[in-house]
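From the shared-data thread, chain only:
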Amino acid sequence: MGTSGGYTGAGGKAGKETSEGLGEWLGSLPSGSSGGDGGPESEGTKKPVARLPRKVVKGLVGLLGPSGSGGGGVATGGSVATGGSGRTRTGSGRSAHRLVGVGGRAAAGAYAFLHGDAAGLRLLGLDYDELQELDDPIEVTRRIVDAVCGHQTNGTLEESEERYVAASVADWLLATSERGESPDVDDIARYAIAAIVTEVLSSELGAILHDHPEMVADPEEELREAAMVLAGQAEFNASGPTAEELTNAIEEGIEKLREIYGGGS
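Structure, as tokens:
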């Protein structure tokens, strides 16, 4: 998963609430397996849908709150969290606005490529004919991520999260197109929200595993499924596939989750 283990948890009330809830959730998962008792599923049975505890979601939407409230913006004060890599962040140190922005732009870039929208790609500094000649979805995704996040990397956790979200959204759109599917704007926005949720929670979960290495459960599949379930509750008023419209739709979805769960209060 993206940046699991990158640091030892966000500070502030939202970070504490998220980490505590994830610790309880992690302890409830089957040891070493994402399916039931660790063995193969019985014929005719289905694994229960993964759902994140309310405590986790409330803390999460606090971390993804507007800049300056709930710890979602780049913090200027509060507790300091330092990971095994030596990276330090104050408060949550995470900019939800930037995560939403890269998700929206990456989605718009992939959508423009799939629909032959050369003008839309030029807005990101990309050339449609050049991408077509690559004939390689992985390389197309990389070009989109570089256009959205920049070619130069500085190795920070924030940048890693942003690149993961951009790559996840672009790759999903290209993969669904290869399967002959054509997701609408709401589907794209929900997937982007799920990618953001998965990456933020994987960072927080990495903190727990760092502090409790004896926990051998592998919750990645559950985390992704739970993020999709959560994103499914979001509502949108999106009208088109431009970067601005997709970004607004993603922000609206996160705000809807904030209203439902009361995060950031």
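The two ends are 29 Å apart (CA to CA).
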